[in-house]
Design goal:
By secondary structure, the chain is mainly β. It has a single domain, classed as Jelly Rolls (Sandwich). It has three helices and 13 strands. The structure holds zinc ion.
Length: 205
């Protein structure tokens, strides 16, 4: 039996979402190994295990055909030349898409396809980002303020975080460039094999 209709308010200032099902936080210690500058990471962690981002969602059910929607709050910050970012993932059922809408702050959605194509899309208020099926995605807060984004994805998508670790990171890193940002190659990146890509396609339900 589907859940009844419901209304939820995203507060413009705090980004708090009413009627949420879940909330989780990722702290700096959860993001160990993501950054090129390990010494800068350790220094920051030594000053406290701060919350880097928090996610609230509304998940009426996990059934195929249902939706999950919510909001991500990302703190501003830097580790060496890189910005605070999410761990990033591909959907466990990889042909599930997602949208993100900028609510406050500014950032970049870093996207990578299984065969190594890369896209960077700027996120800002009034901008909606479409993440197509089969794209790995990571959010990066490139601004000086909290980055707040609302999102929607199919409720049965799931998240595979290991796909990034298995390739030694994403193919490019986003680094500060004056007041802006640019991409630099990640020399440790390992291309996925035909077998790896077939395994991603085999998740399709
Ligand atoms: Zn996702």
């Amino acid at each position: 039996m589907p859940a009844p209709p419901s209304a939820h308010r995203l507060a413009p200032g705090s980004g708090a979402l009413t009627g949420r099902s879940h909330r989780y936080e990722k702290r700096l210690s959860d993001l160990a190994g993501l950054y090129a500058d390990g010494k800068a990471f350790d220094r920051l962690l030594g000053s406290g295990d701060r919350v880097v981002y928090a996610v609230e969602d509304v998940r009426p059910s996990a059934a195929a055909g249902d939706l999950c929607f919510g909001v991500t709050h990302m703190q501003p910050g830097r580790i060496g030349a890189e910005f605070f970012m999410t761990r990033g993932h591909i959907h466990a059922i990889a042909n599930r898409p997602e949208t993100y809408r900028g609510e406050a702050g500014r950032g970049v959605m870093l996207l990578e396809s299984p065969d190594g194509a890369v896209e960077t899309l700027e996120v800002a208020p009034e901008t909606t980002i479409y993440v197509p099926p089969f794209w790995i995605h990571r959010s990066v807060n490139t601004g000086p303020d909290p980055l707040v984004m609302s999102f929607v994805y199919p409720a049965d998508s799931g998240q595979d975080y290991g796909i990034i670790a298995r390739s030694n990171g994403m193919k490019v890193r986003i680094v500060a460039d004056g007041a802006g940002w640019r991409t630099v190659p990640n020399p440790a990146w390992r291309p996925r094999t035909a077998e790896d890509i077939a395994a991603i396609h085999a998740t399709v339900a």
